[in-house]
Write a structure and sequence with these properties.
By secondary structure, this protein is mainly alpha-helical. The chain has a single domain, classed as Orthogonal Bundle (Arc Repressor Mutant, subunit A), CATH 1.10.10. Helix 1 packs across helix 3. The chain starts with 6 loop residues before the first strand and ends in a 12-residue tail after the last helix.
């Protein structure tokens, strides 16, 4: 994954889920906090070991995962 240097995957940390810099803070937690209206400043206050770039990259990673690709199916003629 080019460009996601703050996102890590380790089967021994949070079951291998996408985490921030190997610590026990998942990308999904950060995205849920933002989705529920928490500001970056509030998140950083609640999780002082996070950095602003961690939040930005978590949101960027979630957006990257959500990109849609449409692959038209060919219909077989009968």
């Amino acid at each position: 994954m080019i460009g996601f240097d703050r996102i890590s995957f380790d089967p021994n940390v949070m079951g291998g889920r996408a985490c921030i810099r190997g610590i026990r803070v998942t990308v999904s937690l950060i995205v849920n906090l933002v989705a529920n209206g928490m500001s970056n400043e509030d998140i950083l206050e609640a999780y002082p070991y996070l950095e602003p770039d961690d939040i930005h990259q978590a949101i960027h990673y979630a957006a990257w995962l959500a990109e849609e690709s449409i692959h038209p199916l060919e219909v077989a003629s009968a």
